[in-house]
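Q: Sequence in, structure out?
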Amino acid sequence: MRFLAIVFALYLCADSRGYQDPGREIDVVIRDSDSRPIPNAVVVLSLEGKAGTVADTDATGSVRFRHLLGSQYLISVKKDGFQPVENSAVSLAGMKLDRLEFTLLPLRHKEQVDVKATGDKLNTSSAGNEVATAAARELPTRPATVGDALPLVPGVVRDPLGGLSISGAGEHRSALIVNSADVTDPATGQFGTTVPIDSVESLNVLQTPFLAEYGRFTAGLVTVDTRRGGDEWKWDLNDPLPDFRIRSYHLRGIRDATPRLNFEGPLIAGKLYFSEGFEYAVVKTPVITLPFPQNQRTKQGVNSFSQFDYVVSPIQLVTATFHFAPQRLGSVGLSTFSPQSTVPDAAIHDYTATISDKLTLGKADLLENTLSYTRFTAATWAHGLEDLIITPNGNLGNYFAQQQRSSARTGWLSTYSLRPIAKLGTHNFKAGAYFAPSSENGQVWERPYNIVDSAGQLLERVSFTGGSPVKRTDSEISFFAQDHWLVLPRLSIDAGVRAESQAITETLRLAPRLGIAWSPFADAGTILRAGIGLFYDRVPLDVFSFAQYPNQVITTYNGLGQVLQGPVTYMNALGQVETRDPFVFHENQVGDFSPRSTTWSFQLEQPITPNLKLRASYIQNQAAGLVIMNPVPPSTSSGLGTMLLTGDGHSRYRQFELTGRIRLQNDKQQLFVSYVRSHDRGDLNDFNNYLGNFPLPIVRPDQFSNLPADLPNRFLAWGLVHLPWKIQIAPIFEWRNGFPYLITNPDQAYVGVPYQQRYPMFLSFDARISKDFKVNPKYTLRFSVSSNNITNHYNPDSVYANTGAPFFGTFLGQHKRRFMADFDVLF
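A: Exactly. Output:
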């Protein structure tokens, strides 16, 4: 495939009234064949016969050259894993633009790069938020994995329970794609332990991906491309020393230890490359409202990502990866009202192996095949065998559930991209197929729990009966076809359709997509994007395993020890969907679920100055057919109740986003600023609350209300700034509404409409200052000091929300200002 390396030029006004010409400023932008920026590319700009100026591109793929007085230049561009541009001649004479853009082709393509002076390459309608991972690694939060870095994206937050929320929905409603492979847990839909951030080349979050090649989600899509090994051996060591805990001026053990080792290089020069990202983590997160040392959530484990790239020929590249992440978790869900004895421990292991082949056929067609295998194992257990006791002031006893399971998926993705076809514009056709069998094996055991009032009087007892081993299998088949049609040089249309089939639900779903991108003005850089699409989510295997879970036996009391009702047995069951969706074809059977969302968006992107780009967007996501749990009261004939999983859930998410990217005087310095106004409502009884690794005990009648991650206003700013003397500062500032919380009575039933009350406004300002010391030509030491909550703002994390609690309505849990020091070794 012949790709264009595009050259831009912007007119610089030159006043010719007698003063000395300061010369031109030229921005050089380096992108890959998918229009993604390429950071850390080496750009050399020189006049013929003279020494050149050398600079590296920043996280946006950009670098600026100043004081250019000549008109004829040579440009060379190099980046590991890509075909270089060697001494490409560029004439600045008569050009109206001050922007040059090059597209680098991966090693798998033919060694051919064209550079032409033309308009800006029009992006697709699916523009996401890309995380500048190089800058993110320097933040005081020191994100170690992809999951740690995602809350830096507008529209992504961590909910009060610590899970990720994308477009207002839990991560089980989103997809995670690493190097074209689906790496989510087939049993729960969760992301699991994500790839080390040091291994990431690009990280993108798309809330509106209108390309038909993307599927199996109803909220958002996270795509990750990992870094290939280079032509020289490099390594670096981050956070080699532990962070010690000091209390009352005494050393009280290790607080955190997160050493990270990364290295890469050629195993066979010019043919076989290797890269490795390795982290060993011991993390202890304190709950400050509980007594030490029984107040720590712990995580201990390894996170390793290895990648091999073999250049078979100039037109073929084979890549193999292996992700290995065993984790041991202690006191999961520990909080003010759930002390250590009442929460579980867990051991969760994630393994993913992939092999992909990318082959250029004919003149420029591209055939890609990716084979992946993902396996998750999980075991959870309680701290003892006592019954769990739920009181208005908090929980007592031991966690009620124990489980052991394993799940696996084998996936094969094959895509074929045709070379551009010039007919009524330019068409870029792409089609593909996906096949993935999956399985789950395991068993769940559950023990009784009791609900008591503040005086200790029993109000309700829930015991469990039955339960059997789980063994489920499924297979998914998908096909897609899409066309990126460049109608005019400044107008493109993305149109496509996706067909998905899930055997266990016996459904076939069709998902049409349509999007446009329009640049109305030749030289202003304005881009308008809009689109609408239908998206379907796969149903996790846990939903179909629910019938093998233990059944609940519920007895209610009047507070004096007398039985009001029961014992009543509630049987676990799956419902049947009566859908009128014209794009869903299914058998009328139990469990024929098809979660879906209709999403549309409008976006305006506008460069204000060469150093400031703004983007405004509006997104609306209407979801239906979501799987929820509803307790059905006992019938008079059988006397049995039902815990029913149905496909009748709905949610509605609306988001207005305003983001800005600011480049400071030095191109490697950037600030990212965003404001999000959103509203998130839906059915509260999402199945994920009661299934999965850590189920909640109490099942209340479903209601449609604000969802737990609803945040009407959120302002976020972060970035990286270089100071003199090799000092850099990485600040992060967040201001937002407090999360909503629900009010309950001593019976643990809702009081009023759930999630209408909120925590106080949240404000946090953190910063990390670091300085580099050159030890020798090869090694550099980076010393840093970080501070959390510099303003010492009151950000409580707990509230007495039960009307039976003596301190009802009182907030607590203030995380005060804290300082930390660490150092890295750079090669």
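Residues 1-21, 108-122 have pLDDT under 50 and may be disordered.
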